[in-house]
Specification:
The chain is an alpha+beta fold. It is built from 9 helices and 20 strands. The structure holds flavin-adenine dinucleotide and uridine-diphosphate-2(N-acetylglucosaminyl) butyric acid.
Length: 350
């Protein structure tokens, strides 16, 4: 017979999170619930306030679980955002404004844009996870970041339950950064995001291997669909599919160093990979640094460093979150020792 809590809130206890994180880490949430609209989220938060004995202060919001590493059981309420729907909320001669529910799968949103010839997100094809998390770390790939197409988002404050609209400025986007990782960390549930897409495409093919891939594909008339296909080809050639090998994409950020530090490193290591930034600093390829330390393809138990992309840590099956975390610490230490560069984890450690 279900407990009164289960009847009222549809909260499940001691719930396995293994299918809900792309690392495939086998941990349990003390409590777990889902919501698919703002009203049911409010109801959930409202009812929780009146309950005693539940760890209600800091529910953990979960999207697709593709940027988290669970290092142990989660002694909190985990709430999974499943708000769906994509709708056109405004348009002018050059743009459309699409509002997507936070629970919409990101790549499904990209496919919707491709089908309708709305340009701007084609370079962001095949990034796992959901719309709601896209502004969290300002997802980026192949020369484009969410900030380039972001219009605004709506979020519900976890304590006050007020709905707040965040503009692009409010979000304070940076490289894999936003206000939701700092000032507003764990304070809001993002419920929808509105993106501004272009009716007339501005192709962005300058990054990495896109041009070469387009040539290989023998593309004559460039289109957003061709760029998406090129990006998908490149990604699938080097990033592990989480359905096959557990992972959360890049485990670390690419570090920025002052130009003088870069020059000094280049003297010692002529093949070092770095990109000059507008602020005069240089962004180093963390994958290169990690590979030079000998980690690429390393495996201890079921925790490893991917054979094709050293920046991606993997779970070959039964690794614990702690084993992956400990491996990340060993990598971080060795990069610090060899190059004097401190890596920062990109994945959210929970
Ligand atoms: P989750 O992992 O569920 O959550 C991530 C964080 O956001 C957590 O702190 C969570 O509490 C919070 N959160 C989630 N949803 C909400 C919400 N609605 N409201 C408030 N907080 C929320 N990222 C890139 O930027 N570029 C890439 O190229 C890229 N490639 C990847 C490739 C692979 C194979 C994988 C596995 C991951 C990759 N990632 C990449 C990382 C990941 O896909 C993104 O960070 C994605 O945005 C995470 O979405 P999610 O829904 O899975 O978030
Ligand atoms: N490299 C190596 N060895 C490796 C991996 C990379 O030497 O094992 C060097 C190569 O010289 C390569 C360069 O690093 O040319 C850059 O590698 P890649 O193009 O694969 O990109 P990245 O810098 O490793 C970043 C993002 C990815 C994003 C790609 C494409 C970060 C932390 N990662 O990876 O994002 O998809 O660029 O834009 O910025 C993610 O955030 O999870 C993610 C996968």
């Amino acid at each position: 017979m279900p407990t009164p809590i289960q009847i009222k809130l549809m909260i499940q206890e001691n719930f396995s999170l293994k299918p809900f994180n792309t690392f495939g880490i086998d941990v349990h949430a003390r409590f777990f619930s889902r919501f698919n609209n703002v009203e049911s989220l409010r109801q959930l938060l409202d009812d929780l306030k009146q309950m005693s004995g539940l760890p209600i202060d800091t529910p953990l919001v979960l999207g697709g679980g593709s940027n988290v590493l669970f290092t142990g059981d989660v002694n909190r309420l985990v709430i999974k955002n499943e708000i769906s729907g994509i709708r056109l909320v405004a348009e002018d001669e050059d743009h459309v404004y699409l509002q997507a529910g936070a629970g919409v799968n990101w790549h499904q949103f990209v496919l919707y844009c491709l089908e309708n010839n709305y340009a701007g997100v084609e370079n962001l094809s095949l990034i796992p996870g959901n719309v709601g998390a896209s502004p969290m770390q300002n997802i980026g790939a192949y020369g484009v970041e969410i900030k380039d197409v972001f219009h605004e988002l709506e979020a519900v404050h976890l304590e006050e339950q007020t709905t707040v609209v965040f503009s692009k400025t409010d979000c304070a986007f940076g490289y894999r950064e936003s206000v939701f990782k700092h000032k507003h960390k764990s304070s809001f549930v993002i419920t929808s995001v509105t993106y501004k897409l272009s009716k007339k495409p501005h192709f962005n093919t300058s990054y990495g291997a896109i041009e070469a891939e387009l040539q290989k594909m023998q593309v004559k008339d460039l289109s957003i669909q061709a760029i998406a296909k090129a990006v998908i080809n490149i990604r699938t050639s080097k990033l592990p599919d989480p359905q096959v090998i557990g992972n959360a994409g890049s485990f670390f950020k690419n570090p920025e160093v002052p130009a003088e530090k870069y020059e000094a490193l280049k003297e010692q290591h002529p093949s070092i990979v770095g990109y000059k930034l507008d602020n005069g600093h240089v962004k180093l390829a963390a994958g290169w640094l990690i590979e030079q330390c000998g980690w690429k393809g390393y495996r201890k138990g079921d925790a490893g460093c991917h054979v094709k992309q050293a920046l991606v840590l993997v779970n070959y099956g039964k690794a614990s979150g702690k084993e992956i975390f400990d491996l990340s610490t060993a990598i971080l230490d060795s990069v610090q020792d060899k190059f004097g560069v401190l890596l920062e984890r990109e994945v959210n450690i929970i």
